[in-house]
Amino acid sequence: MALPDTASLPPTRTDFRDRTVGRLLRRPSALVGLILLAGILAMAGFADIAFPGDPLDMAGTPLLRPGDAAEFPLGTDMMGRDLASGIFHGARVSLLIGGVAALVSLVIGIGIGALSGYYGGRVDRALMRVTELFQTIPPFLFTLALVAILQPSIATITTAIGITSWSGLARLVRAEVLRLRNSELAQASIILGASDARIIFLHILPNTLAPVIVSASILVATAILTESSLSFLGLGDPNVVSWGGMVGAGRETIRTDPHVAAIPGVAIVIAVLALNLLGDGLNDVLNGKGERR
Amino acid sequence: MSDPIPADPVLAVDGLSIAFQTRRGLLPAVRDLSFSVGRGEMLAIVGESGCGKSLTALALLGLVPTPGRVTGGAVRLEGRNLLALDEAALRHVRGARISMIFQEPMTALNPVLTVGEQIMEAILEHEPVSRKAARERTLALLERVRIPDPARRFAEYPHRMSGGMRQRVMIAMALAGAPAVLVADEPTTALDVTIQAQILSLIDELRREQGTAVVFITHDLGVVSRYVDRVLVMYAGRKVEERDTRDLFADPFHPYTQGLIAAQPRGLIAAQPRGLAARSQADARLPGVARERLTEIPGTVPALAAMPPGCAFAPRCPLADDLCARTVPPPRPAGSGLVACHHAGESHAI
């Protein structure tokens, strides 16, 4: 016996994704964020083609202002290094550290949050105490201490930022898992004989993805800021150019030649702003403001 | 219609007792419940909210929600006592030998997976088959639960389906492991009447085709009367009557059962007048109720913490006397089944 049915068209996976992306693109702030982020990604990708030399090499007369010389569109710093080259190559470092640190943080945060929320009881109490311990230490000071002990390099900075920034995410994931663990969906899966791993990875975590994606974009932004601050304080990787390091180097000439510090500063602002705009847009789309999927 | 007590039951519940652990001690919610279901048989457990029927349903799968715990008895599935198994062993039984469907299929389905993927996962959980084979079995299952155009429906998300379709998907998932027993906990309550009938007849067809034993949990005696072989009536955690469906409706023995049948809005018994219009004080007496007009049972179910020492139904029962207030009536053979009442059969032989 055929049932009359409400659904009309056969939907597919891509159908659902297209609609999410489409709705994201219809939000002006998210669109601006995406375009800015794409620009920064392009800068990072084409850094070697646009500026083949080492950005830390002295390239011309020191302290040229933007527009002073055609070959240095953004001018040079007090060591005669090309600022434009530094911005392009610095985008690489910032995005790499931001992305990988956020990934480290996601793995730890989701892992701890999922175990804590799913198993509850003693496991939950132990893991949450550890999380609270991490929350009580100011993250920036913690990162600073770790980097100072481990010697600054891209790897140690990334790890340190990752290790110090997962606690909020762990609590978020724990709350979501706790909610879904007691849902009928989880009950039904248990009743149909699903294993813990299958319930967590197949039925629970995919349903917590929306808030996690949103906080991931903010995590990347925070990681970029933290790395910049570290570099500004002279705890960046000395072998690579980074935006924070450039701001730090420009500090000495801030009265006479403010552009040296201002230009990388603007780059940081744009990158962080782009990620926040994207995060807001994702939050609206995924967490169901307006239309329901 | 099969034997009232099947010779070789697939599922046998023996003296099952479940209690809630509270600060003031154990509160018994299900007491000394016994029943069994044979291959291809359909048993309805009927009772009002809080009588312990859903708790019983979960206990059949070895799942008792905290703070409840099993305080006695056994649940034997194909001879094995599920209550003695550990979690790992239970996991291999659940979904494979005994399965369950629920009231609200939407909340039991994963919104981010297509229905096909979910059924496939249910198959892969229990059997080491290739994804291709699992996919083919999924399509066959969708076909078996009468979902039109299975290949297309495979790729649909649950929110794109109607309630009846979702329940069909749930049934397909529950049947993925070809279980011997299917527990159905009010699976049609959230559906409208025409879909209700379709789902019920689907379950009925499937158990006839595959020999699956079905335990149907419901509060609505009328809905299931056409499909089930036997009815078990629960009241305040105890079985009060268990009979073949036809006998039960023709001549209910327990005053509570009589009240339930008489409270059906449509005349399920030929002698009962249709509608609720005529309701008078004189009719509120229970004896011979099937032939009179009674539309409700006076009073409410006693709270778990304030259970009377004798028959739990005594405070609401017009037949109750001192004996009922003092001692719990033991179940005794009556017609094609059992009844637990001191006074059943006094007006006529049972």
Automatic annotation (TrEMBL), chain A:
Its main location: membrane. Residues 91-279 form the ABC transmembrane type-1 domain. Keywords: Cell membrane, Membrane, Peptide transport, Protein transport, Transmembrane, Transmembrane helix, Transport. Coiled coil: none annotated. SUPFAM superfamilies: MetI-like (SSF161098). CDD domains: TM_PBP2. The keyword Transmembrane applies. Belongs to the binding-protein-dependent transport system permease family. This is ABC transporter permease.
